[in-house]
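$ run holo --ligand "alpha-D-glucopyranuronic acid" --emit tokens
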Amino acid sequence: MSAAATSLNHSGPMNTSYDGCMFSKTIAGIAVLTLPLSCAFGQTSTAPPTVVAGIPVNYDEALVGTYALPDPLRLLNGKPVRDAKTWNNERRPEIVHLFEENQFGRSPERAAEMAFDVFDKGTPAFDGKAIRKQVTISFSKAKDGPKMDLLIYLPAKAAKPVPLLLNISFSANSVTVDDPGVKEGEVWNRDKKKVPGKQGFAFGKVNVVPLVEAGFGFATVYYGDIEPDFEGGLPYGVRQLYLKPGQTQPAADEWGAIAAWSWGLSRALDYLETDAGIDAKRIALFGASRLGKTVLWTGARDTRFAAVIACCSGEGGAALSRRNYGETIAHLTAPGRFPYQFCANYAKFAQHVDQLAVDANLLVALLAPRPLLLQTGDKDYWSDPKGEFLAAVSAGSVYTLLGAHGLETDQWPAAGTPIMHTLSYYMHAGGHGTIPSDWNQFLAFLQMHLKP
Ligand code: GCU
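-- output --
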């Protein structure tokens, strides 16, 4: 294994768990610097495991079973939703609440004690094509309390406020982009210690230049600045700031790590709203894998975000849980895997997915009528690309109700064939993560909807 692979820190105790992208990350760690725009993981596809955490995994379409999805347009009391008003005032809040209570957990409002320290006020970067800014966002008054570095690039030539893509990364900001002027952040290593960013791994690198040349700003944060990605991370992240006296763990319906990362993205937006060079009404989010789940939940909760691109979010993200294919809630919440990423209530549905009042179709529907691009890979069996497509098909009724365009087809497209409407779907030929050519689709999607 390469250094990049051995320093992977985001997957929890990998010796006992399957991480769908471990091998491809290794490859991306080597290949990433040579790629034209960006590479998150790469596209190696290894034979998917048939048993994970002692639980069998199904990859046979004939065995996915039959299921009835919760209807996006029917209230829990059985009343149909026939207009935008009932959606916005009744069904939408009901669904948000159900996801909070049963899957991601409730998160607090904006931090009362938050402070912004703009330590880089605008420095030319990338041969003068961009202006770089860096901000530390502190989440509490304590000097050694949790804080997040936000790195921002704006097109140098912009004459008016620009739309922007906000990325949440597995790497420190100094590793996410190729710019020697970026403060070297720290990352969590596998021993649950903070180490210099370059000792982490370098996938998810973004080539900022094509974005700024197209008139977009770009900003990024390291997810571990907000909350560590391991069991037992609670004392080191933002969630501990909100424990009530005597409380040692969040309650069963309170935030897991994904909701914490998501909350941090909202705090990044709080800052972006104060920058006159940015049009805060045109900010899109991007994240991959568990961070794909994170950006979906963020767009669902926080309607200030104008658009979302979610890469391979899979189970717990855009893939239908009721469809027994690839990872299931039981795999996600198995001890030693990722239960800490969700609220404790989520594990109750590991054996009873039919009792969960929500499914991924409702998560997708919460984005309506805002633009959403689901990017998947046809060999990423573990995260069930077809399950993501079917969730989007079902959510289409909400887009239509709100006067926007859903996928407008129920035929799963072949790899390499984008469906680009307000609700969009693109499956590359390959495995887990984002490959360089996906960025052409991202750019087309952003141009179509955020009009730089
Ligand atoms: C694991 C996990 C997935 C997750 C992925 C990732 O494969 O099972 O649910 O999306 O890691 O974040 O890379």
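-- notes --
The radius of gyration is 20 Å.
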